[in-house]
Amino acid sequence: MTVVDEFLRRFAASPMHVLQFERMLGELDGPSPEAFAEAVIAWDRAAQHPEATRIALELLIEGLQEGHPPRLSLEAFGQAIVSVPANTADVRAHLRQSMT
Amino acid sequence: MVPSDEDPRPFPLASDATRLDVSRRTFLRTIGATSLTGAAAATLATDAAAQQPRPQPATGQLQAPPGALPDSAGYQNIPREVADNLRKRGLVGYADRLRVEPGQSITFMVSSERPRFRADIVRLIHGDANPRGPGIKETVVETRANAEYPGKHQDMPLGSYVTVADHAALRLTSSFSVIAWIAPTSQRVGPPEHRVGTEGLLTKWRSDGAKASGWAVGIDDGGRLALWLADGNGRTESVHAEVPLRPWVPAIPGMNQRPQGVATAWYFVAVTFDARTGRVRFTQDPLNDFPFDHTRASIERETPVRALSTNDEPVLIAAMRQADKRPGSFFNGKIDNPRLYARALSPDEIAAARGGRTPADALVDWDFSADIQSDRVTDRSPRQCHGRTVNLPMRAVTGHNWDSSQMDYTRAPEQYGAIYFHDDDIEDAKWDPAFSFAVPDTLPSGLYAARLRAEGFEDYVPFVVRPKKGRPTNARIALLIPTFSYLAYAGTGTSAFRPLSLYSRHSDGSGVCYSSRLRPITNMRPKIDTYNPWQFMADTHLVDWLHVKGFEVDFLTDEDLHFEGAAVFAPYRAVMTATHPEYYSHQMLQGLRSYLGNGGRLMYMGGNGFYWVTPMDASGRYVEVRRRDGTEHWQGAPGEHHHSLTGEPGGLWRFRGMAPQQYFGVGFTAQGFDRNSPYKRGPGSFDPRASFIFEGVGSDELIGNHASLVLGFGAAGSELDRADFAIGTPPHTLVLASSFGHSDAYQHVVEQNNTANGANPGGTVNPLVRADMVYLEYPKGGAVFSTSSIAWCGSLSFNNYTNNVSRITENVLRRFASDAPLPGPAAPRVTAGQ
After folding, report:
1. First to last CA, chain A
2. Which of B20, B439, B479, B715 is least surrounded by Cβ atoms within 10 Å, i.e. has the fewest?
């Protein structure tokens, strides 16, 4: 069991997401997939909202697929995840705001 | 808002706020330019645990296997993860049943982080909040259950074990011995918060603050055999072996998790306590005969204990009673034939037992090879200290003496004398009930939910109201809600489809084979924020379409078909599946076949259906899957492919001779994850037999070439089925249309490839990567229409339900639900002399 396995297990809402996440990890041009996965898992543990990390990753993939990925640092990506309040109704909107 | 036909963008799209004018490479460089470690540490200032230095293995402790597994990945603390996520949700519940009928009552269990919550019963029509679709549609049902209730937090009692009721013979006061075969699977690597602690093997223990009683044999947090004794004054004495048991290696380091067998490292273990001397002897002997195995060891320890205090606790196997009086310290791994003696066995006797010549005077002798298809645990001793399994540990697993001569436990049960326990097994969360809903006699059949709301939190607990048995119905159509498949994908914690589903691995890396409905299933929900709705929420696309089109429909579940067979469909002219009816029992398949053979008409509205062999327990609480040789997320271990519930071989129905192609014309052929594709009409669509299907559809019109609520665009996508006459598609089947243009993100499924080097699996090169829409007739007026795509129903609502996916679906359903006979194949022409 690897940290990438755990990443896929934690955040995929369907088997399709597993494949998308695998591709996304393979396209990272900086941190290794293992390092990225480990950081995201840590952010998820620290997050207040149980869906924040998964939705942030969906936004990342949407941006990549459209050719319009959000411009943000890794710190900002992690901060966006952990800053979503526990009782936020529209997590996606909150993340969009903080990921810009 | 609905995109136009020309809109090539996937939806949901990011808002303008996030659609920045930068290239993908810019983004990648941006995140790569930052020191990840520094970023993570800075962001995680609140996660103190993550900042602790990682511990080094203690002297004498075995290192992780070669391959440098990341520290955090050695053991996945599923119980902690589930508890954390359920607490973060704030409000979560489950029901005591998935389907109910008028006149019955359904009870809801709720965990709330708020002191009060409100519940309302709602009818669910459309559960997908995607702004590109019709949005959430629900109607409050006025009932007496709609009210405020007191809320309280409730824990998930994960972890399996055996419990044996207290018995005078088990209240040991003096010398005793425990022997067993064990195969521990916990991995003791990684930071402390992710590591397994103490694990109970055979325990009769009570510890209430300062005072303890009883005895417990287990594994300590260093991975060593250990014994806990409570003396006559209630003081605890613990001793342990010197050499840790070998850590289990669940996968090849660096290898993707999916293609994997499971190897187990068996040990014969013995722990003896001699009350006369206070000496304890630990013996651990690996089953393998390899030389130089330094985990083969025997050591003697001394204690001051000369007498034991007793208690009336049950004996727990694979767990240990905690100070909070609940079972805990769950063992991960297999246990085979644990035995207890009321004396200290000699080293010679232990050696004899290792060789199979067990002393005959066992106090208790639990034989797990008996009653495998149940929760019963049998004691072969005259005392008959029988037990029960709790939380579905895995049965029908190979024991220490399995010799590979039999793959079927029913043919050699004596080689299947093990039970595989996991600290994240669950059958019944057993939460306290919060409220009940007495279903009015007049409530229409449909999809419903208990909508729970508390300050800042919301949850839905869905259920199906089926028509009342024996009461005539006006509906000519039944929608079969795939509850078996919901259970297979049932995750607990977030809207991810893991952990605790049949796609999950346990904490130790082995596959999960049982899935119960008696727990919060947090991905079986409406309002999940995702661009790829899956199972329950995707099925509401069809529920909504039926509602908008005004069809009168009765809702049934897989359980209804499983337990009642074809009779449950007797009132209906047409039956529709949902989007992904993947998990089927033999009874369900036979029921559908019988319905079709007697003139029934089926609309298979999805993809990858009728795929995995899936029995359900007799009480209807849980399903079981033994994965092998399919497109799968884990592979079962050798010799463990037969279902514990029924003894039948597991795997794919096609390898049981019941390929879905035989009955429904199509079967699983490919899956992918980027943009879906449209269908192009084929010659079959112009056959007069199929003319009613394409009324109002142009001859050169692409089908489903528009936006979708599933993966953004196109009606053919996600998982695809195809006609295959070699596998069993009936020869008269009409292939009406086929999808095209799939990318290499779509791959031909592995079960159709016998060699890796000749597969050409990608959609750009493999013509078998496509969805075939098919139609075939059955005798007595029956028929099947198959869409062959999970994504089909995501296209129904496009353009205010005016599109060719909607049109074709409506054409077929209106005809299928009518009494008008279907055209049927022409009689075969026979020419004299040929």
Report:
1. 34
2. B20
Residue contact B711–A16, C-beta within 8 A = yes
Closest to B574 (Cα-Cα) out of B320, B362, B314, B781: B781
Q: How far is A33 from chain B (nearest CA, A)?
A: 11
Yes or no, beta carbons of B34 and A74 under 8 Å apart: yes
Q: Which amino acid is at A53?
A: T
Q: Could you give the CA distance from residue B613 to residue B629 in angstroms, rounded to a whole number?
A: 12
Q: Is the pLDDT of residue B46 over 90?
A: no
What is residue A1's predicted lDDT score, i.e. its pLDDT? Answer: 66
The reply to whether residue A34 touches residue B70, judged by beta carbons under 8 angstroms, is yes
**Token pair recorded at residue B468:** 């009342």
Is the predicted pLDDT of residue B437 greater than 70, yes or no?
yes
Q: Is residue B332 within 8 Å of residue B338, measured between CB atoms?
A: no
Token pair belonging to B591: 């029921």
SS3 for B619?
coil
Task: Give tens-digit pLDDT for B14-23.
Answer: 232 222 222 3
**Cα distances (Å, whole numbers) of residue A84 to A50, A76, B88, B529:** 10, 12, 12, 14
Mean pLDDT score of chain B: 89
Give the residue on A whose Cα is nearest the Cα of B745. Answer: A19
Structure tokens, B826? 């022409």
**Burial profile B270-283: b = 16 or more Cβ within 10 angstroms, e = fewer:** bbbbbbeebbbbbb
Write out chain A residues lying below 8 Å of B47, CB-based: 42, 45-46
Contacts of A33 in chain B (CB under 8 A): none
User: How do residues B740-758 score in pLDDT, each as one tens digit?
Assistant: 999 999 999 988 877 655 5
Q: Which residues of A touch B250 (CB under 8 A)?
A: 1
CA gap B300, B283 in Å, rounded: 9
Greater pLDDT, B292 or B390 = B390
Residue indicated by tokens 């250990």: B226
Helices (H) and strands (E) in chain A, counts: 6, 0
Q: Distance between CA atoms of B40 and B97, rounded to whole angstroms?
A: 43
Asked if B194 contacts B270 with a C-beta cutoff of 8 angstroms, the reply is no
B601-643: pLDDT as tens digits = 999 999 999 999 999 999 999 999 999 989 888 888 889 999 9
Output the CA–CA distances (angstroms, integers) from residue B381 to B338, B354, B733, B773, in the order listed. Answer: 12, 19, 61, 61
Beta-carbon contacts of residue A8 (< 8 Å; ≥ 6 apart)? A18, A21, A22
DSSP 3-state assignment of B447? strand
Flag if B456 and A5 touch (Cβ within 8 Å): no
Question: By C-alpha distance, which of B324, B12, B296, B398 is closest to A93?
Answer: B12
Torsion, CA A40, CA A44, CA A47, CA A52, rounded to 10 = 90
| Of B389, B453, B549, B368, the residue nearest B120 (C-alpha) | B453
Predicted confidence band at B41 (pLDDT cuts at 50, 70, 90)?
very low
CA-nearest residue of chain A to B524? A13
ipTM over 0.95: yes
Cis peptide preceding B12, ω within 30 of 0: yes
With tokens 């009692």, the residue in question is B157
For residues B19-48, give the mean pLDDT.
35
| Cβ A62 vs Cβ A96: under 8 Å | no
DSSP assignment of B18-43 equals T--S--HHHHHHHHHTS-HHHHHHHH
B606 CB within 8 Å of a chain A CB: no
Alpha carbon distance B507, B81 (integer Å): 11
DSSP string, B762-791: BTTT-TTSS-EEEEEE-GGG-EEEE--BTT
Q: Tally C-beta pairs within 8 A across A and B.
A: 232
Residues 810-829 of B with CB under 8 A from A: none
For chain B, percent of residues with pLDDT exceeding 70: 86
Q: Check residue B826 and give its pLDDT.
A: 60
User: Hunting for tokens 């409530």 — which residue is that?
Assistant: B443
